[in-house]
Amino acid sequence: xxxxxxxxxxxxxxxxxxxxxxxxxxxxxxxxxxxxxxxxxxxxxxxxxxxxxxxxxxxxxxxxxxxxxxxxxxxxxxxxxxxxxxxxxxxxxxxxxxxxxxxxxxxxxxxxxxxxxxxxxxxxxxxxxxxxxxxxxxxxxxxxxxxxxxxxxxxxxxxxxxxxxxxxxxxxxxxxxxxxxxxxxxxxxxxxxxxxxxxxxxxxxxxxxxxxxxxxxxxxxxxxxxxxxxxxxxxxxxxxxxxxxxxxxxxxxxxxxxxxxxxxxxxxxxxxxxxxxxxxxxxxxxxxxxxxxxxxxxxxxxxxxxxxxxxxxxxxxxxxxxxxxxxxxxxxxxxxxxxxxxxxxxxxxxxxxxxxxxxxxxxxxxxxx
Length: 369
Ligand SMILES: Cc1cc2nc3c(=O)[nH]c(=O)nc-3n(C[C@H](O)[C@H](O)[C@H](O)COP(=O)(O)OP(=O)(O)OC[C@H]3O[C@@H](n4cnc5c(N)ncnc54)[C@H](O)[C@@H]3O)c2cc1C
Fold this sequence. Notes:
The chain has helices at about 15-25, 90-105, 210-225, 275-290, 300-315, 320-330, 335-340, 345-355, 360-365; strands at about 5-10, 30-35, 45-50, 60-65, 65-70, 75-80, 85-90, 105-110, 115-120, 125-130, 130-140, 150-160, 170-180, 185-195, 195-205, 230-240, 255. The chain starts with 5 loop residues before the first strand and ends with a helix. It is an alpha/beta fold and about 375 residues long. The protein folds into three domains: about 5-145 and about 245-290, FAD/NAD(P)-binding domain; about 150-240, D-Amino Acid Oxidase, subunit A, domain 2 (D-Amino Acid Oxidase, Chain A, domain 2, 2-Layer Sandwich), CATH 3.30.9.10; about 300-365. β10 (about 125-130) and β11 form a beta hairpin. The protein has nine helices and 17 strands. The longest helix has 16 residues, at about 275-290. The chain binds flavin-adenine dinucleotide.
């Protein structure tokens, strides 16, 4: 095989690809990110509870110390003195990553290029792209998963600017449950940036998406219900995220798999940004030591809890709103938010377990995996 063109080839320059590229570029590694998009647009807002530092902290657009869940038993308002719910604009993350990669003499980003087949030889990897062949010592594959999950989070959101001040910018509406239009659990999510500006999103946790037409009609009804006066749509986002325990595509041996295809979405919620940041830390650190990083796999207890939780949502979706409401009402401050962000600390897990009703969970736990 010819000399490698680059030490590390990163397939896909989305959240996971850029997150790991930035860490490796800052460490002075030789790398190339291969990304099919010709240019980036501000296509999504990543929101999460920050639990650890990451290179995108100056991309935070807004943060909140209060959030609300509205279920059948009424509204639950929660807050934290320690943890903030934050939003980073994807556009700012893409800009920051591009500039850090450009500043590194051994790192580069190839836009408008798709990676296709990968071939392993004793000397390294040959990567066929639609603009030629690339040789690398390591491959990090962050391309989207090809497999369709058996259960997922589906949503349509619009960031709107309204004529009337209809939002409370002090509190995120995390989940306002609605009668289900999907075959699962349906809720509205409102991320208020100002009294007259918010991302309003309709979301289903369901086996399949209810479809664009259903989402559009539902979203328009929700926005009209806010009585916003005239309003302007600034941006739209839509997604289908896996919610499935163990959802990860087994990579070709020797390939490092990251992102949604590497099991980064929290199975019981779909939150992925924080888990992608810890995957990126883990992969960069392993490569620094010359070790082969393993895609992070949740521990047995975490997988068991996620499986039981999903089992309840799938078999008894009508109980979903009360379950989430109960979780937010009963779990100890900060512990639930850490658990939702990927914490596997036993105290966080215990707090979540003890805030759930015993009977349906016991039944679900008895169903074989
Ligand atoms: C609209 C939206 C909003 C979201 N909001 C949140 C949120 O608020 N909080 C949260 O925690 N998670 C959120 N998520 C979930 C998750 O964080 C994102 O999906 C995240 O972008 C996943 O990162 P990724 O790198 O796996 O995938 P992506 O960011 O989609 O990156 C995959 C990359 O692979 C590239 N690619 C595709 N084919 C090829 C190919 N053949 N060769 C090379 N590259 C290829 C794509 O162009 C893309 O850039 C959201 C997802 C969406 C879609």
